[in-house]
Design a protein that fits this description.
This protein is mostly helical. Helices cover about 75% and strands about 5% of the residues.
C-alpha cells in the first residue's frame, strides 16, 4: 500500500516538474498534480488497452510508433477534463507524455530501490 502511494506521489512530482521542461504544459499545484496522476493512471488502465487494440493495424504499420500518439491522446484527454492542468495542443501532449514518462521513470528508479535476489532471501549467505 505504501509503495502505491509512493508511486502516486512520484507521478505527481513528475507532473509538477513538467512545466519547467515544457512551456506548453501548466499544472496549478500539488493537489492538482495528485488528481491528474490519479486520472492518468485510471485512463491508462481502462482506455489505453482499448485504444491499442482498436489501432493495432496502424501500430503494426508504424512499428509501434503510433503508441506515442495514443499516450499523447490520453494525456491531452486528461488535460481537457481537469481544471488546473492544461496542455496547448495534441502535438505538445505527445511530447509532454514522453517527457513525463522519462521523468517518472528516472525518479522511480532513484527512489524505489528494489532489493536484489541475493539480499532478499535471509537463508542465503555470501
Amino acid at each position: 500500500m505504501i509503495q502505491i502511494l509512493l508511486v502516486w506521489a512520484i507521478n505527481a512530482a513528475s507532473l509538477l516538474a513538467l512545466p519547467y521542461v515544457l512551456p506548453a504544459v501548466h499544472v496549478s499545484g500539488f493537489a492538482t498534480a495528485l488528481v491528474v496522476a490519479l486520472v492518468l493512471g485510471l485512463l491508462n488502465a481502462v482506455l489505453r488497452p482499448v485504444l491499442i487494440l482498436l489501432t493495432l493495424p496502424i501500430s503494426v504499420l508504424t512499428l509501434g510508433i503510433f503508441i506515442f500518439v495514443i499516450n499523447g491522446l490520453i494525456f491531452w484527454l486528461a488535460a481537457r477534463f481537469l481544471d488546473g492542468f492544461t496542455v496547448s495542443s495534441l502535438g505538445w501532449s505527445i511530447v509532454a507524455a514522453l517527457v513525463y514518462s522519462a521523468i517518472s521513470w528516472a525518479l522511480s528508479s532513484l527512489l524505489l530501490q528494489r532489493p536484489s535476489p541475493r539480499t532478499q532471501d535471509p537463508r542465503r549467505r555470501g
